[in-house]
Amino acid sequence: MTTTSAQSTLKTLTDRLLANESSWGERRQAVHDIAELFASLGIYDIHTNEREIGAAVNLSGGYAISSWGAAMCLLEVKRTYIFIKGIIAAIQSLQRNQPNKPLHILDAGCGPFALLSVLPALYVEKGTATFHLLDVIPENIAAVKKLITALQLDDFFGDLYIADAIHFKWPKAVPLNMVISETMLNALRKEPQVAITLNLAPQLAPGGLFIPENIRVDLYAVNNKLNQQQDRTPYEQFYTTLFQLNKYTQFEDGITKQLAKVKIPEEFDCTQNRFMYYTFIKVFENVVLEYNDSSLNIPCPAIKESQQIGLVGKELFFYYEVTEYPGIRWRL
Questions:
Q1: I need a surface site. Which of 84, 98, 167, 195 has the fewest CB within 10 A?
Q2: Which residue range forms the structural domain that includes residue 232?
Q3: Helices 77-97 & 3-18, crossing angle to 10 degrees?
């Protein structure tokens, strides 16, 4: 396959992924076809045993997943669809607000495909935006460099950095207009999304965008004895919003953020109910990922079942801690 036809094929597949009329099945086929296209270009074949290449890396604010794990994110249909749709909309919004000024966009934690830059680059007019890529795993930067050349997209990409996004400083004199970083798990646990946001968001130029625009984690009590229905009201109860992560978020000491106090009511039935974290992601404006839309939105336990009985009637203090194993914690 020629480089010109490879780019054309990728654009056709991405059009199919983003088309409003496409069904879930059509979008699923599109992301699998994109994976096959990348493999045919000799970039990274997710179906081969390449898990040893680009191993996960432990960082000061969470771990960077392996190259294989990052590549596999492509196949999560709605996650890929929503992020690409939101990023394109965000770029177009910036271009409307800053006409005739080329944008500089940093993709932090790009993985071996730099999917959140490569696909949006297909919808950008040459010379209006430059994507810069950053990843802590050298194999990812090597792979994506090869991909960009194979797709003849070199004119849309600037510098490629092998660095830790938690400590990276934007080195250019030009303004940093947008940061894209999808380096998270549900409930903002384990991975470095929070630490990266705290470092890079303050480096944005005035009016700059951080994508995702907002990540919200709520605390719910879920009745795990009832079958889940379309109307979830009978089996789940909202308690409070614990945490919102966006470009304005600040940690007083850089490590810990106090979130909320929650009193467990005396009538709380620990044999029926379980406290869970629910994660909601606003990629840009009304382009969102909600309850169970992706692995990033699957509710996850907040408190061990074995601990809940002893907490009835007591007040819990929730806080977020940025460590090698970041996440929401609680104490009495």
A1: 167
A2: 215-331
A3: 100
